Amino acid sequence: VSKNVDNHSFNDVVWSDTGKNVLVTDGELYGLLQSRDVNVASYIDGLDSIAQNLMTEINNVHKTGFGLQGDTGLDFFTGTDASNIAVNAELVYDSSKIAASNRNTDMSGNGDNATAIAMIRNQGVLDSGATPIDSFYQNLISKLATATSEANTNVTTHKALMAQNDKQINAVSGVSIDEEMSEMIKSEHAYGAAAKYISMVQTTLDQLMAIVR
Question: What percent of the chain has pLDDT over 70?
């Protein structure tokens, strides 16, 4: 395997001698790769989009506000996507630098900038400004739940079809223990009857031979 930086650094399946990608067109491995590269990747892209827009919008507002000591121009978040988004370490170390105020005088008790930041969740940000971050996230989770339910239903349906096919195959070519036991008992009885017949013939011949002598 080798990491593909163009595909979320997922591992590609490659030939050990040439390093070229293995062309997988069916089977369990194909299904796993499709699930990872198409389904999972789409949710990762969605989460990255949420994180990136969240960081951009909040940082833009936060930098215009002021902390208790007049600190301003600081990013609230650091990172590039959902995998490494984090609160600015400078704010974690000193929470008084959080720019909750929208003015640089009488900052204590003023939380207007913090309120503006909180309202971002309901503002149209994603899908070219048509969808709020909160709605986008809810839609993403709903889509994931629906896809999971459909996948579970498909698995249950296919298992039932496989069981039905196995039953039909066994009905045509399978071995019935009861039927085989019945045939064995019939053969045993037939063998016993034949043995008795031969014994009787042997006894009759012996008696005839005794008379002839």
Answer: 96
CA neighbours closer than 13 Å in the CB half-sphere of residue 128: 0
The yes-or-no verdict on residue 146 having pLDDT over 70 is: yes
Q: What whole-number distance in Å separates Cα of residue 37 and Cα of residue 45?
A: 11
Q: Which residue has the tokens 């989770």?
A: 141
Angle ∠(79,84,90) on CA atoms, nearest 5: 55
The pair of structure tokens assigned to 146 is 């629906």
Residue 50 main-chain phi, psi, to 5 deg: -60, -50
Q: What are the structure tokens assigned to 14, written together?
A: 């490659």
Which CA distances in Å does 34 have to 25, 27, 208? 10, 11, 87
Helix (H) or strand (E) holding 13: none
Task: Give the predicted TM-score (pTM) of the model.
Answer: 0.67
Give the burial string for 154-193 (b: 16+ CB within 10 Å, else e). Answer: eeeeeeeeeeeeeeeeeeeeeeeeeeeeeeeeeeeeeeee
204 compared with 57, residue with greater pLDDT: 57
| Helix, strand and coil percent figures for the chain, each rounded to 5 | 65, 10, 30
